[in-house]
Amino acid sequence: MSEADTLPDRSLLYAYRAPGDFLDCYSVSLGEHHDLQNADMRFLADLILNADIAWMRNLMALRDRVARFVGMKSGKALAMEQAPTPVAGRGVGERIGFFKIYQVAPDEIILGEDDWHQDFRLTILRDAQRIYAATCCRRHNVFGHAYLALILPFHKLIVKSVLDKAVKASPAAA
User: Fold this and answer.
1) Using an 8 Å Cβ cutoff, are 139 and 148 in contact?
2) Sign of CA dihedral 94, 79, 77, 63
3) What are the residue ranges of helices labelled H in 20-87?
4) What are the boundaries of each domain within the chain?
5) Distances, alpha carbon 87 to alpha carbons 48, 54, 101, 127, 152, in Å
6) Phi, psi torsion values for 43, nearest 5 degrees
7) Does the pLDDT value for residue 27 go beyond 50?
8) pLDDT tens figures, 53-72
9) How far from the centroid of its chain's Cα atoms is residue 76's Cα?
10) Range among 115-119, 149-153, 157-161 rated most confident
11) Burial of 141 (0-12, 13-18, 19+ CB in 10 A)
C-alpha cells in the first residue's frame, strides 16, 4: 500500500527544484517484486503512468475538456506525440504517455511538461525496497497556484492509485 513519504536526498529532482516550488512524494514497497527491482526505468514509468484506472481516465478526460478552454496543454494531445518505438528505447525528449522524458538514470527517471501556468517534473526513483514518485510544480502565475490547489486532492489519489496498481500488475504479483 502506497503512502506519503520523503524523497531520498540522492534524487535528481532536487537539481530542478527551486525555492517556492511545490514538492510531494509517495512511495510503495517493492516487496518480493524482483521484476520491478531490476526493470528498466522507462518500463517502470510506463507501468505506473499508463495504469488503466477507470475513474482516473474519466477525471483526465474532464481535465482535458476544461484545459482546452483556458489554453492549457491536454494530456490527450501530448500523448499523441508519443513515438511508436518500444518504451525501453525512448530517450530524452520522447514521451511515455503524455509525459516528456527529461532524464533517465539506472534507478530514476524524470518526466514532465512545461505550460504557461506551471511547469512540473515527476520523478520515479527506485531503491532495493521501494518505488518513490515525487512531483515538483513550478507555478508561474496566479492561475498556476489556483490550478494546483484545485487538482491537489485528485493528484494525491492518482499517485497513490497508480503506484499500488503498478506493483499489483507486475508479473511477480500473478
Assistant:
1) yes
2) negative
3) 34-37, 41-49, 54-70, 75-79
4) 3-173
5) 13, 23, 11, 21, 28
6) -65, -45
7) yes
8) 776 676 666 666 666 766 66
9) 15
10) 157-161
11) exposed
Grid cell in block for residue 70: 483556458
Burial letters 6-38, b for 16+ CB under 10 A, else e: ebbeebbbeebbeeebbbbbbbbebeebeebbe
> Would you state the cell numbers that stand for residue 25, as one nine-digit string?
512524494
Return mean pLDDT, the chain: 85
Close Cβ partners of 69 (under 8 Å, ≥ 6 residues apart): none
Residue 87 DSSP class: G
Question: DSSP labels for 26-41?
Answer: EEEE-TT-HHHHSS-H
Q: What are phi and psi of 115, to 5 degrees?
A: -145, 175
Domain spanning 3-173: CATH 3.30.530? yes
Taking the CB of residue 102, how many other CB atoms lie within 10 A of it? Answer: 18
